[in-house]
């Protein structure tokens, strides 16, 4: 199985992991799950209202995929009488 390096970076942190996965699509899926988990934790803790990170997937030193992940949460205003 090929080894993919998955890197998730934003202004507050950098995380990198090498995983053996069947293909680039599997690596993309794992990277997306990881980035959403990190962002969800930041939102859940209340430390952030918006989370964004750059995700890079490399194989054999060659960049295969690069994309941004962003999630956010904000309270909804409840209008009386609605």
Give an overview in words:
By secondary structure, the protein is of the alpha+beta class. The protein has one domain. 27% of the residues lie in helices and 43% in strands. It contains one helix and four strands. Strands 2-1-3-4 form a four-stranded antiparallel β-sheet, with helices on one face. The longest helix has 22 residues, at 24-45. The chain is elongated, with a radius of gyration of 16 Å.
Quick recap:
This protein has one helix at 24-45; strands spanning 3-9, 14-20, 50-59, 62-72. It is of the alpha+beta class and 82 residues long.
Features:
alpha+beta; elongated; four-stranded antiparallel beta sheet; 82 residues; 1 helix
CA-based gyration radius: 16 Å
**Strand neighbour order, sheet with most strands:** 2-1-3-4
Main β-sheet description = 4 strands, antiparallel
Q: Can you tell me the residue ranges where pLDDT is under 50 for at least 5 consecutive residues?
A: none
* Percentage of residues in strands: 35-45%
Number of helices: 1
**What is the domain tally?**
1
Binned, the helix content reads: 25-40%
| Mean pLDDT over the full residue set | 90
Structural class: alpha+beta
What would you call the shape?
elongated
Q: How far apart, in Å, are the first and last alpha carbons?
A: 56 Å
Elements, N to C (H/E)? EEHEE
Strand tally: 4
């Amino acid at each position: 199985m090929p080894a993919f390096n998955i890197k998730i970076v934003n202004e507050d942190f950098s995380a990198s992991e090498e995983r053996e996965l069947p293909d680039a699509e599997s690596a993309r899926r794992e990277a997306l799950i990881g980035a959403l988990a990190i962002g969800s934790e930041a939102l859940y803790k209340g430390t952030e209202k918006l989370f964004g990170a750059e995700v890079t997937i490399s194989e054999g030193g060659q960049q295969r995929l690069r994309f941004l992940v962003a999630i956010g949460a904000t309270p909804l205003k409840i209008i009386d009488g609605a």
